[in-house]
Design a protein that fits this description.
Blueprint (H helix, E strand, L loop, with lengths): L2 E3 L9 H5 L5 E4 L2 E4 L9 H5 L5 E3 L1
Antiparallel strand pairs: 1-4, 2-3
């Protein structure tokens, strides 16, 4: 299950970018974006997101 970012909740803090061990998260228009091809479904980004903008689908 790939991590998905709720663009309305994302504050652009980049905490998830620094935490992602697979480098699957980048910033796009000041919002986090998860590359589903690179995501390893570890959930690290979900755990560290201060705005609870990331969930798995």
């Amino acid at each position: 299950m790939t991590a998905v970012v709720d663009k309305e909740k994302c504050t652009g803090c980049e905490t998830c970018v620094d935490e992602c061990p697979a480098a699957a998260i980048t910033m796009n228009s000041e919002k986090a974006h998860v590359d589903a091809e690179l995501c390893v479904d570890c959930g690290s980004c979900i755990d560290v997101c201060p705005s609870e903008a990331i969930h798995q689908e």
